[in-house]
What we know:
By secondary structure, the protein is mainly alpha-helical. It has helices spanning 7-16, 35-38, 42-56, 60-73, 78-88, 93-106, 111-123, 127-140, 145-157, 161-174, 179-191, 195-207, 212-220, 230-239, 245-262, 266-280, 286-299, 302-307, 329-337, 350-357, 368-373, 377-392, 412-418, 431-439, 453-473, 483-488, 490-500, 547-553; strands spanning 318-323, 342-344, 400-403, 423-428, 478-482. Strands 2-3-1-4-5 form a five-stranded parallel β-sheet, sandwiched between helices. Helix 3 runs parallel beside helix 5, helix 12 (195-207) packs antiparallel against helix 13 and helix 17 runs parallel beside helix 25.
Amino acid sequence: MSNRLPPAWAKHLKTQTATKALSPKVAPPKVQPSKVAMSRTHADDMLLRQALELQQADRLTEAEELCLRVLARTPEHPLALYMLGTLGLGFDDEKALRYFARAVGADPRNPYYHLSLGEAYLKVSEFSPAIRHIQYALAVKPDLVEALCALGDAYSAFDKGEMALLLFEKALKIAPDHPLARMGLSHALASLGRMDEAAVHLKETIERRIAVPAAYNGLVHTRKYADEPPELEAILAELRDTDHGSEGAAALHHAAGKVLNDMRRYKEAMDHFKKGNQAAGHKFDLENYRRWVDAMIEAFSPELVASTAAYGNPSEVPVFVVGMPRSGTTLTEQICASHPKVHGAGELSKLRRIAMAIGLGNRFNANISESVATITKDLARTLADEHLAYLRERAPDALRIIDKMPHNFELIGLIGILFPNARIIHCRRDAIDNCISSFVLQFNEAHSYSADLQTLGLYYREYDRLMRHWGRIFPGRIFENRYETLIENQEEQSRRLIDYLGLPWDDACLRFFDRDGSVNTYSRWQVRQPIYKSSVKRWRNYESEIQPLIESLGDLAEV
Length: 559
């Protein structure tokens, strides 16, 4: 994966690693360099400039080595720490957090370091410290557009979409053509269901030739198309421009596929979806994932579950909605969160962060059983109490708080230890429909299994194998919410969901599409509509094009 730096970071690093003094145009107002920064040497600067060039060439290991050489000679050098933080982003976010925190400690008045630390906290769903550090960056440098946008993203993720809008609007007044501000504003509008306004902003963004592929991809997801729109011809023309690069090509192919699919030109649509996934170039190590699933199944035995039954926190507040992406997790959350006693917190990475800290989330860890053995009763209670406090920040008075991170299906064993009374809702959907709905979206590298039809089907089999194991060792604890059942009998299944949550029925749950608040997933258009049935057995539209998927699913494919 290319570890490209956000513009603010790259610009700041280039300036800071220059052999001359900081330019007055770039230097944050009233920021005094630390003693360490003042004592840096010309040799340090030269090494860091080389490291930056290596990083931008994706030679990340070499870049890291140069930064570590600087630290060996000048301990706590803030720029070296800062660069090491950027090198960790997307690969090891915990490592990035540690280095950014050390950079802030070495130069506590530097707004860029606070911004970077805040962004890193945002990536791991730690919203309170993220907001605190980004706000500090803005207190020091109020016109730092990237910080305004980062704070807007944080507020959107924290279900404060209206506050996010104000920040993006302010950023645009400072820098009308800034891509983060333009795309951030349209995303915030779309997350609030204001699709027409989002479309207006995206069209203007395209006219100004800003982030064109991403803007087209966002635009086509603001509505459904019955007839061929002028955007389709424009998108196809953009695809002939090689300057957009592989990431831009992927976004444009997926945008074209979305429009063609709406128009029921399915063969052409699938051709673009395939090209979009090929352009992204994501690869997935299926054999390693199988070994990891084997290790999880071996580690979480019925005996372990029995021996840890009294661990953790007995609270009934946490609810985990899990399943494959595109299995109905967002719809399920919206229905439940329409209840006045339920808060939908969206997709949180907190549980994954806990799992990584104790070795469960590392798919290259061959010693899962040893990692599980480190979870003592005291540790389980400490982790659970901390997690509950984290959830309570979002809704202090809610009786149930939902984390709908789909891939928490991998961590149900950990959920069982930390929260023996937590509700777990497993969203399951027709296997072929589920896989196709993932394949046609421009997912990031975290979902690299979805880029190839055969790999996607084989991955689904591993998901199914693990979920069947959880069902065996936690009998009766996991509520299976079939997407097709929910679509066919909305009220009946919704009542079952609310009953499973242990709450009295409320008619607001039938009008989930009227619910206020932000929706920050690809389903944000769908969940603003009443339930519709056109997505059931959708895969038949592509049957001749998806045989590798059907064959790899084997007996799980309901044909």
